[in-house]
């Protein structure tokens, strides 16, 4: 055995690094093993084309838990979040909906489409603020297991019931609706204008393989609001240096607490002896011994690949196989010679410093889903665009720009053909859609990187390229995530833990699964 | 003061009559006022063409609660139930057909024709559905708890339900919680591979909703529709309307009065209390309690009036999703049609389901989503006269077809224009599976969602009084905070399908509402 560690964390994504940092901070000797040449997993910045840096997979940040930022002193380790102050919804007819930091300006914009919507806007925002506050509680707790009679589980259930039943009645009911409705129906309770409804609903489909009219998407909408609570009105932001800047800050914090981080070290398997994890073996045959092994990989990899499923209870294996990890999104990264021009708002301007949501109507989003549910990519996709170089000029050479396009839907499994054959056609569909509102886009593209769910899987390993490690549907949340009986970060193998987005509370650059897992591990040792 | 009743029930639908009979049996002086000339509301059976007795809204009473049948002595009052050994017959586009029986072993043999894998899994599937539906059944006859003010007696009752769910065992309890919000497609995909089987089973999950099988919560709906047993097909001899007649008879035997042809214009409210009703003719009738079998929107916006209700409540009522999406087409046939893949007449004695795959259903939904009638129609047909010759003239048959995904709001047309084309398309679709059926048609009658609204008073033509989605079930039916049959108006109650547990011919909302009223009255 090469070295002895207290804990080995498999995967240097943001959750793996958070877990490592918390374990190291508690005095454990920790080793993080990352298969790629850099840390971050899906939270990376890479110079894909010379001088052009991209947050290759993820793109914005808001959910990162403030307690983690504080406790790991991430600001000291170089984390700077630049605010994304606006969301622009350009429309094919040349109009646009702009919502920004200036509240009155936002209301005037909303009122151009509907006076009624402008009247309801503040109430909606207030409600979502309360909802995010209401569920913030669950982001900080290990899900209790309702099938166990352990005092901790019983107490956890009681605490949870007290928390939720203690909410004001209005909020309790609104939360119940949020958990069960579709995003489109939910926002329709307040709004009538298409650009606004669609842009709000779009947050409900990100990372899911569901359309905006599918019940369950309102919860995903809420998931994307959770980050807004501790910050200002628009708390979505962009990490300086790209999302990789977040991973590097966490890695730096982990190292400062004594953790070792090894890149280029793909783990082949977890070594299990007598029902106990004793270490890991790399693909090159090197082995590392440790009493604690923590997988930040998705549940399929954690349970079906890193360990021999034959060592696990059959029911767990069956549950993990059923765990819905359908990949549904792609990413197109563009290196631009100049800023794109919006037909609605020509020339440069602050609107380019925010998010640009290509979501003209709920039907548009729903039709994009229709294509995907029958196994094809959306011919007219939903695209969420940001141009990081506008707010962080270091991302591109002087005068040039990088543009990140998050795209839905791109199903991992195509009914006809392969992604190899369809990748460029998919990229074209995205560019064509955007060109309808950015007429000069095609002329300013220098390079284009098209990432399909298959590419995401092959590059960073996430099964089916599902950015949340498994859909955030009601059937897969809380004590059901990733499987009944195993939502508490433990596994049936002693000393083997899980800490990825496939565990509670789920995906996004949040860090909560990593922290909660670390706290559980520390309780056990 | 013209009359004094203990309770006035608005609407002689099956739930209104269930409430009336239950209250009358407890000794209350009850009056039922019904707008139409016959009993049953959407659960009526009417002679749409001379000699043919057609079920208006519901062909079956598979979900009718046993406790209601017993408590109201419905069999004594003439209710005769029939069960067919066949559950459903699903003809396929390739000329084959899948028949599912109530009996699991029989079904297995039929499924094996499509997939041996699925046949082998079917018994376990049926067992799981039975377990899950059993847990759901335990909630049918209880008023949902008031989460904002938990009182000890409700807590105790729901504690028993919780215990029942808990006693399912760890695996089943977790499965129950996992299944309820799940899209039915995902659930069926976990079990089966055959499109024919999944399509045939899956149709039950979209009943009562404007959702495709990929919509969250459709598994709950599937379990709800199979509460009485997987693929159960139970009808009332003489037509579904006979149930209303039995209920009416039970009510009257206990002293209740029933006035048909008496539409209610409004519910009289004085100082936040319901005091009676005013009929369309202008007469007002006083009562200690007013019980509305009408749907929530009609009750509160139409009969009470928004000014008499708290604004927040009104807003909740306005936000109820109705999503009426059911049309029915009745055909008078000169003879029994012959379906492709059909070997025996018996196969036509239960549901005849045109839903060859889940994608077929999903595509039918896609069109409806954008306000159009489906290109390829999902149909749920029945020929009740096969088992019950009384329903049609000798030798003739009645074919009643439910078309789902017929949106109340058509985007580029209206129902007046679409009525007959819909009838044509239903027939053309059926002809693909039963060649020559066109020649048998003697007469036909199309009931659009708009007709259901105009003739039967159902908002948006929603026969379920509001979509049966996860967000409108249990404590959230009809609106959050008011799931216990009471309303913000004192002495005004809801007893229709808009209240817990919801739509279908169950009798449960009426029965539960009556018991809530009795508790209030008797203190």
Radius of gyration computed on alpha carbons of chain A: 22 Å
Mean of residue pLDDT values of chain A:
94
**Largest sheet of chain B at a glance?**
7 strands, mixed
Tally the helices of chain B. 16
Distance between the termini of chain B: 25 Å
What would you say this structure looks like, in words?
The complex is a heterodimer of chains A (525) and B (523). Chain A is built from 18 helices and 18 strands. Chain A is of the alpha/beta class and 525 residues long. In chain A, strands 1, 2, 9, 10, 11, 12 and 18 form a 7-stranded mixed β-sheet that branches. Chain A has a 7-stranded mixed β-sheet with strand order 7-6-14-15-16-13-17, sandwiched between helices. A two-stranded antiparallel ribbon of chain A has the order 3-4. Chain A is globular, with a radius of gyration of 22 Å. Chain B has 16 helices and 18 strands. Chain B has helices spanning 14-25, 66-71, 104-112, 116-137, 152-166, 170-179, 184-191, 195-202, 218-225, 241-253, 296-304, 311-318, 358-369, 415-433, 449-456, 508-522; strands at 4-10, 30-33, 45-49, 52-55, 81-83, 86-91, 97-101, 234-236, 257-259, 264-270, 273-279, 284-292, 326-333, 351-354, 379-382, 397-404, 441-447, 492-494. In chain B, strands 1, 2, 9, 10, 11, 12 and 18 form a 7-stranded mixed β-sheet that branches. In chain B, strand 1, helix 1 (14-25) and strand 2 (30-33) form a beta-alpha-beta unit. In chain B, helix 1 runs parallel beside helix 10 (241-253) and helix 3 (104-112) packs antiparallel against helix 4. Chains A and B meet through helix 6 and helix 13 of A and helix 6 and helix 13 of B.
């Amino acid at each position: 055995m090469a070295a002895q560690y207290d804990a080995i964390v498999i995967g240097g994504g943001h959750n793996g690094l958070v877990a490592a940092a918390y374990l190291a901070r508690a005095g454990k000797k920790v080793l993080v093993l990352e298969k790629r040449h850099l840390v971050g997993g899906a939270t990376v910045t890479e110079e894909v084309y010379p001088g052009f840096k991209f947050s290759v997979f993820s793109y914005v940040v808001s959910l990162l838990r403030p307690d983690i930022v504080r406790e790991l002193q991430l600001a000291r380790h170089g984390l700077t979040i630049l605010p994304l102050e606006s969301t622009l919804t350009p429309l094919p007819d040349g109009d646009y909906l702009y919502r920004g930091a200036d509240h009155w300006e936002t209301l005037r914009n909303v009122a151009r489409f509907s006076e009624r919507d402008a009247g309801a806007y503040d109430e909606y925002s207030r409600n979502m603020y309360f909802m995010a506050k209401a569920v913030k509680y669950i982001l900080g707790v290990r899900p209790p297991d309702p099938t166990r009679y352990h005092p901790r589980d019983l107490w956890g259930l009681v605490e949870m019931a007290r928390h939720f039943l203690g909410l004001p009645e209005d909020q309790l009911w609104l939360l119940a609706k949020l958990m069960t409705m579709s995003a489109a129906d939910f926002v329709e309770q307040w709004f009538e204008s298409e650009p606004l409804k669609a842009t709000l609903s779009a947050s409900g489909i990100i990372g899911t393989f569901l359309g905006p009219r599918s019940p369950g998407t309102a919860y995903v909408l809420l998931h994307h609001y959770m980050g807004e609570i501790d910050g200002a009105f628009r708390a979505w932001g962009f990490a300086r240096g790209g999302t990789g800047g977040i991973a590097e800050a966490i890695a730096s914090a982990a190292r400062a607490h004594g953790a070792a981080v090894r890149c280029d070290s793909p783990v082949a398997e977890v070594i299990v002896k007598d029902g106990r994890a004793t270490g890991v073996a790399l693909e090159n045959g090197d082995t590392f011994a440790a009493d604690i092994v923590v997988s930040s990989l998705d549940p399929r990899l954690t349970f079906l690949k890193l360990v021999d499923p034959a060592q696990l209870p059959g029911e767990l294996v069956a549950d993990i196989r059923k765990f819905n990890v359908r990949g549904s999104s792609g990413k197109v990264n563009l290196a631009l010679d100049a800023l794109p021009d919006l037909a609605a708002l020509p020339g440069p301007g602050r609107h380019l410093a925010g998010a640009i949501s290509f979501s003209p109507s709920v039907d548009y989003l729903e039709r994009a889903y229709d294509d995907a549910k029958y196994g094809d990519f959306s011919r007219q996709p939903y695209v969420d665009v940001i141009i990081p170089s506008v707010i962080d000029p270091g991302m591109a050479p002087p005068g040039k720009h990088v543009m990140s396009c998050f795209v839905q839907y791109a199903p991992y499994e195509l009914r006809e053909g392969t992604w190899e054959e369809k990748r460029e056609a998919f990229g074209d569909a995205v560019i064509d859609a955007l060109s309808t509102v950015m007429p000069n886009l095609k002329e300013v593209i220098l390079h284009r990187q098209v990432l399909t769910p298959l590419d995401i899987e092959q590059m960073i390993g996430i099964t089916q390229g599902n950015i949340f490690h498994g859909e955030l549907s009601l059937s897969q949340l809380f004590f059901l995530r990733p499987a009944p009986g195993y939502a508490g970060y433990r596994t049936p193998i002693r000393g083997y833990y899980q800490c990825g987005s496939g565990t509670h509370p789920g995906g996004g650059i949040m860090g909560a699964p990593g922290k909660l897992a670390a706290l559980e591990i520390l309780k056990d040792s | 003061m013209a009359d004094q009743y203990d309770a006035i029930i608005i609407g002689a639908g099956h739930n209104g009559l269930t409430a009336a009979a239950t209250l009358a049996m407890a000794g209350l002086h009850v009056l039922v006022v019904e707008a139409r000339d016959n009993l049953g509301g959407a659960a009526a059976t009417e002679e749409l063409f001379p000699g043919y007795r057609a079920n208006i809204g519901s062909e079956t009473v598979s979900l009718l609660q046993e406790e209601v049948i017993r408590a109201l002595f419905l069999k004594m009052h003439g209710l005769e139930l029939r069960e067919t050994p066949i559950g459903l017959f699903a003809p396929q586009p390739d000329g084959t057909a899948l028949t599912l029986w109530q009996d699991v072993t029989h079904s297995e043999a039929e499924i094996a024709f499509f997939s041996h894998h699925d046949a082998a899994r079917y018994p376990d599937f049926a067992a799981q559905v039975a377990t899950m539906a059993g847990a759901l059944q335990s909630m049918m006859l209880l008023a949902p708890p008031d989460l904002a003010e938990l009182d000890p007696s409700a807590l105790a009752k729901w504690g028993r339900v919780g215990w029942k769910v808990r006693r399912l065992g760890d695996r089943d309890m977790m499965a129950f919680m996992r299944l309820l919000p799940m899209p039915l497609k995902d659930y069926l995909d976990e079990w089966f591979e055959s499109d024919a089987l999944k399509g045939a089973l899956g149709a039950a999950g979209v009943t009562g909703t404007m959702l495709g099988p990929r919509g969250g919560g459709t598994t709950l709906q599937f379990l709800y529709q199979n509460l009485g047993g997987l693929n159960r097909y139970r009808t009332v001899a003489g037509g579904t309307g006979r149930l209303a007649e039995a209920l009416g008879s039970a009510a009257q035997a206990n002293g209740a009065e029933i006035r048909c042809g008496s539409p209610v214009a409004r519910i009289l409210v004085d100082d936040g209390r319901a005091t009676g009703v005013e009929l369309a003719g202008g007469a007002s009738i006083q009562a200690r309690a007013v019980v509305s079998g009408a749907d929530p929107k009609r009750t509160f916006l139409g009969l009470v009036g928004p000014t008499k209700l708290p604004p927040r409540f009104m807003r909740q009522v306005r936000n109820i999703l109705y999503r009426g999406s059911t049309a029915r087409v009745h055909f008078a046939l000169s003879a029994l049609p012959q379906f492709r893949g059909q070997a025996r007449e018996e196969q036509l004695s239960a549901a005849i389901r045109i839903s060859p795959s889940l994608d077929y259903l999903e595509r039918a939904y896609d069109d409806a989503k954008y306000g159009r009638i489906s290109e390829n129609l999902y149909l749920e047909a029945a020929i009740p006269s096969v088992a019950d010759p009384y329903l049609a003239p000798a030798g003739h048959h009645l074919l009643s077809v439910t078309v789902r995904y017929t949106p109340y709001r058509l985007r580029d047309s209206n129902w007046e224009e679409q009525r007959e084309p819909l009838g044509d398309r239903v027939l053309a679709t059926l002809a693909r599976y039963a060649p020559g059926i066109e020649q048998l048609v003697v007469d036909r009658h199309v009931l659009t969602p708009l007709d259901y609204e105009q003739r039967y008073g159902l908002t948006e033509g929603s026969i379920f009084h509001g979509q049966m989605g996860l967000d409108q079930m249990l404590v959230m039916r009809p609106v959050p905070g008011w799931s216990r049959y009471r309303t913000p108006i004192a002495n005004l109650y809801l007893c229709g399908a808009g209240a817990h547990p919801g739509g279908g011919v169950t009798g449960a909302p009426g029965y539960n509402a009556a018991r809530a009223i009795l508790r209030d009255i008797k203190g």
